[in-house]
Amino acid sequence: MHNFIYITAPSLDEAEKIARRLLEKKIAACVNIFPIKSFFWWEGKIESATEFALIVKTTSEKFAEVRDEVKAIHSYTTPCICAVPIERGLKEFLEWIEETVE
Fold this sequence. Notes:
Blueprint: E1 2-9, H1 12-24, E2 30-42, E3 45-59, H2 63-73, E4 81-86, H3 91-100
Antiparallel strand pairs: 1-3, 1-4, 2-3
Helix pairs in contact: 1-2
């Protein structure tokens, strides 16, 4: 099975650092980075921030390894690291993920 893992980071530099780490370790086939505006509850009040969202394309078996790598270098106390299962997709694309991730 395959996953998209959704992660948020506070800066483009940190998002790129995370992406490169996951790719260098071959636990991700691809990482997309998007600028986003986030609104959230934190310590009893509503906050907002400009963040960067990462979508990591990988196999479901690699979730724990991705999570642990991200937690080790992420600056947030409680980073968003959530897996979204891919139920269907282009066969060749899913095969590419499997062939790329070690």
